[in-house]
Input
Amino acid sequence: MTDYATFYRRSIEDPKGFWAEQAELIDWHRPFDEVLDDSRPPFTRWFVGGQTNLCHNAVDRHAARRPDDNALIWVSTEVGQERTYSYAELQREVERMAAGLVELGVGQGDRVLIYMPMIPEAAFAMLACVRIGAIHSVVFGGFASVSLASRIDDAQPKLIVSADAGSRAGKVVPYKPLLDEAIRLAKNKPRTSSWSTAASPPANPSKAATSTTPPSGRATSTAASPAPGSTPPTPATPSTPAAPPAPPRAYSATPAATPSRWPPA
Output
């Protein structure tokens, strides 16, 4: 590999050639027509006419080639715990959450607002949105109800993915009451899916944001608050199999480029 200065200089001097080469490093569902359309300055379009799925590139292709390698390592200074997910495990978790989103009516182009603590499930939610072509907006878990309500109205999400509680500085932060109040204040009234991290504030606050049971049975959804006893749907099949490509519903139509790398080698 060339040194960084040379690498960077080429990206400035020959952006079309540079990004065409970089685009060869990922898989494409449909090849691009041109790398860069800058015919209407100051507006530009990259990888015109192409299509890829970023969840496939981040998860699926690695799960197929090296399923047991570490994909996600979660280390919490709040609760003093660590969880590690292989690519195969990460793929299963993302598929499961993607199935839940689809079951709740989320589709390509819909907005999903994610209001969660720094737990692995937040990453699952983001990847699940990308997997089905939805647009996710992450809201900082420390925001109060008024700030959260304004972001709900700005994004007008079809669904909010949240948690019942988190932990900060050794204290339990109850997300559920904050979310309920935010939805009351907001003009837009989306459905919510709440990830159960703690049924009630524990004696040891450091355990508030941990998940010690399998995902099944932890997610609930209602129009404004969790429905007792609800369970997640059957896990989805992979949305980006090697062959044939997944249906359009399961793809995010992201501008793509370079000669087609689909199906994966």
About this structure: The chain has seven helices and eleven strands.
